[in-house]
Amino acid sequence: MEGHYSAPDFEPETLMTRLSATSLAAISPDIALPAYDRAAITPGIVHLGIGAFHRAHMAVYVDDLLKDQPDWAIVGASLRRPDTKEALEPQDGLYTVAVRDAAGTHPRVIGSILKVLDANSEREDLLALMASPQIRIVSLTVTEKGYCHDPATGELDQRHPDIVHDLANPTAPKSAPGMLVEALARRHAAGITPFAVMSCDNLPSNGATVKRIVSKLASLRDAALGEWVADKVAFPGTMVDRIVPSTTDADREIVAALTGVEDAWPIMTEPFTQWVIEDDFPDGRPAFEKAGAQLVEDVEPFERMKLRMLNGSHSTMAYLGYLAGHEYVSDAMGDPAFVALIRGLMTEEVMPTLDMPGTDLGAYRDQLLERFANPALKHRIWQIAMDGSQKLPQRLLGTIRDRLAAGQGIERLSLGVAAWMRYVMGIDEKGENIDVRDPLAIRMMAIAAGAGSDPEALFEGLVGLAEVFGDDLADNEVFGADVVEHLDSLFDVGAAETVREVVG
Ligand code: CS2
Q1: How far apart are the first and last CA of the chain?
Q2: Closest of 142, 275, 282 to residue 199, by C-alpha
Q3: Phi, psi of 210 (to 5 degrees)
Q4: Which end of the chain has fewer CB atoms within 10 angstroms, the N or the C?
Q5: What torsion do the CA atoms of 432, 436, 441, 447 make, to the nearest 10 degrees?
Q6: Cβ atoms 240, 275 nearer than 8 A
Q7: Could you give the CA distance from residue 2 to residue 407 in angstroms, rounded to a whole number?
C-alpha cells in the first residue's frame, strides 16, 4: 500500500523497449495482455493510494472485467509522492504483475489504470474528477495511518496535523478523509448522487470505521453535510488479501527478461488472492464476482478472521523474526520453532475467538502457513514491522481482549506484543540501530530510552499509549504479567531462544 514501497531507481536501458501502449506488440507472445481495447475504456473508479497492493489486487480484478464493462476503469491518485505517476505515465498506465512461487514467475500486463494523478500538484483535477457523476466508486489503500484516526477507538483524530490543515483549508485538503469530504461536498452542492467509498485497508470493520471518520470530518465542516454523508453515502466494508512485497531492482530485471520490455515498476506477488466485499453500492458497481470476488451481506467475520490469523501472525513473526536476525518471512518459516509458534498462535489462541460457520479454519491456517513459506516471495520482515502502533489493535489486541474476558490464556499473543515493545526500542540484539518506521516512533523511542532494559518500565511506558492500548489493558494484571515475563526473556536470552522456550 502507499507509503510501504520505495520508488525504483529506474534507469531505462537503451537497448530495451519500455512497456507502453505502442510496445505491447513487442511483448513475448505467451504473456497475457489486456483483453480489451484500451481506447474504449472510461473511468468509473477513482482510487486513492495507488501503491503496489492496489496494483496487485483490485486493479487486477477490474482488468478481468473491463472487456464486458468498459466504463469501470480506474484513475489512480497518490497522496504523498509522485513516484507511481512518474513510473506509469511513460508506460500509458500499463504495468506488469508477476505471480511467483516455487514453480516459477508468471507475468501479466495490466491495463485497468487509465492514468495516475499526483494529489499534491494536480489536486483540482483530482477533486473535479471525484466530483463528476461518471465516478461511482472511490476506493482507498492509504495504509492504516492514512485515515488520521485513533487506532484504539477508530475515531477521527482531530489533532492530527493533516486534519487540522484540512479543517482550515477544506477546499484544498491533504488527507484522504479531507479529499473524500471535499469531493462529496461538491457532489452534494451540485445535486449529484454520492459515490460509494470503499476502503481496501486492513482496518477493523473498515467500512464502518471509514464512515465514522469521514462523516465526523464532514460534520465538523458543516453539520448538514455531516448528516448527508452519514445518511446517503455507502461505505461498503471489504476484506482484502494478497501478499505483495516491495519491488526490487532484481525483480525488475527478472520481469524484463521474461516479457522482453522494461517496466519501471512491476509488481511481484503470490498466486493467492481473496476479496470479500459487502454488497452496498447504491450507484452501481462492476460485476466483481465475475472476477472471483465474494459479495456478502456481512464482511466483518471475514475481516476479523484475516486480520487475526494472517496479519496477527505476520506482525508476531515480523518483530520476533527481525530480532532473531531473519530478513524475509520465508526465512523465519525455515525455523521449525517459528512455525510451531505461529501454528500454535493460530490454533490455540486465535481460532477459538472466531465464529465462522461454514469455513474450515484449520484448512485456512494450513494455507496461510504455506503462503508464508513461499520461497520465491521475498517478503521483507521489516516491511511488515512498519507502523506497528497502527496495526497492533486489530491484529493482536482485540484477540487478547476477547481471551482475557473469557479467562483464557494469551501466552503466544502476549509474546507478539512483547516483541513489538522490544523492537520499537530501536536497538537490536547486536546493539545496532533499528530503522523503526511508525507515526509514534519518536514518542516510543523516548519512552524506551527512559526505561532502558528494565522490562517492567518498558511495559509501563508503552502500555500508556492510549491510542494503541486503550485505557483497559494497562491495568490488566494477566496481560501485564505475561508481556513483562516475555520481555524479560527477550532481554535475557534473545528472540530465537525465547521462541524455542515458548514452543517447548
Ligand atoms: C502485512 C500485510 O505489511 C503488513 O503489515 O501484514 O500487508 C499483508 O501482507 C497483507 O495484508 C496480506 O493480505
Answers
A1: 37
A2: 142
A3: -70, -35
A4: C
A5: -30
A6: yes
A7: 39
Which phi-psi region, left, alpha or beta, contains residue 10 (left: φ > 0; alpha: ψ -120 to 50)?
beta
Q: What are phi and psi of 239, to 5 degrees?
A: -120, 125
Per-residue pLDDT tens digits for 394-445: 999 999 999 999 999 999 999 999 999 999 999 999 999 999 999 999 999 9
Task: Kindly report the pTM of this predicted structure.
Answer: 0.96
Cα(126)–Cα(116) distance, integer angstroms: 10
Query: What CA–CA distances, in Å, run from 12 to 25, 95, 116, 246?
Result: 19, 15, 20, 20
Q: Is 24 exposed, middle or buried (0-12, 13-18, 19+ CB in 10 A)?
A: middle
Our answer on whether the CB atom of 241 is closer than 6 Å to any ligand 1 atom is yes
8 Å CB contact between 189 and 156: no
Residue nearest to atom 5 of ligand 1 (CA): 384
Beta strand ranges found along 79-211 (DSSP E): 95-101, 104-110, 113-118, 137-140, 149-150, 155-156, 196-199
Q: How far is CA 357 from the centre of its chain?
A: 26
Q: Are 371 and 270 within 8 A, CB to CB?
A: yes
**Ligand 1 neighbour 57 (Cβ under 6 A):** no
Rounded Cα distance, 342 and 339, in Å? 5
Residue nearest to atom 10 of ligand 1 (CA): 243
Q: What is the pLDDT of residues 213-254, one digit of tens each?
A: 999 999 999 999 999 999 999 999 999 999 999 999 999 999
- Report DSSP state, residue 208: H
Hey, is 149 helix, strand or coil?
Answer: strand
318 Cβ closer than 6 Å to some ligand 1 atom: no
Provide the grid cell at 222. 458543516
Q: How far apart are CA 272 and CA 317, in angstroms?
A: 20
Kind and range of the H or E run holding 238: strand 238-241
Residue 311 CB less than 6 A away from ligand 1: yes
Q: Which helix (H) or strand (E) holds 78?
A: strand 73-78
Instruction: Determine how many CB atoms are found less than 10 A away from the CB of residue 367.
Output: 14
- DSSP H or E segment with residue 125: helix 123-130
Q: How many other β-carbons are positioned within 10 Å of the β-carbon of residue 178? A: 25
- CA of 391, closest atom in ligand 1: 5
**Cell triple for residue 358?**
461454514
